[in-house]
Design brief:
single chain; mainly alpha; Four Helix Bundle (Hemerythrin (Met), subunit A); 4 helices; 3 strands; about 50% helix; about 10% strand
Amino acid sequence: MTNTRTQSFLHELNAEYKATLACLERIPGTLFEYKPHPSSMNLGYLSLLVAEIPLWIQYMVIEGEIDFATFPHFTPKTTKELVDHFEQNMEGARKALQATHDEALQNPFSLKANGKLLYTAPKIVDIGVTINHWVHHRGQLTVYMRLNDIPVPSIYGPSGDDKQFTAPQ
C-alpha cells in the first residue's frame, strides 16, 4: 500500500507552514477589526480563517464532514492566542494525515450548512482544494498586511519588505 497522495499533502502542508506562521505572528490584535472595504471580512476573521483551515483538513480526514453550523470556531483575543490556535490545528492536520492512507482518502467528504448537504467529494480531491483555499486566503492576508504597513514576510521568495531585496521601481 502506497501513500503517495497522502504524503504529498503532508509535504505541501508543511511547506506552507513557515510562511503562514510568519504572517500570523505579525497580525496585531489591535487590528483584528480592520476592514479594507465595507464588503470585506475583517482582519481578525481572515487571520482566524488562515489559522483554522488546517483544522478543516483534520475534520475531513477523521470526521468526513464539516457542518458550518456546528464547526467549532475559536475567538482569539491576542496574536499569541491566534498563533497557538494555528499551531494546534497544524498538529492535528499533520497527525490526521500521518494516520491515514490514500485508499481511505477515497471515502467521501461532505460539506453541510445546518445539516443541509452542500456537496460531497472524495477526501483526496477536497484536501487539495482546501490547501489551495488556504494559500489563497494567506495571499489575501498579505494584502491586508501591506495596507496596514505590516511587513510581509518572504513566502515563495523575498518580499518587498526583505532588507536584502529592493522592489523594482
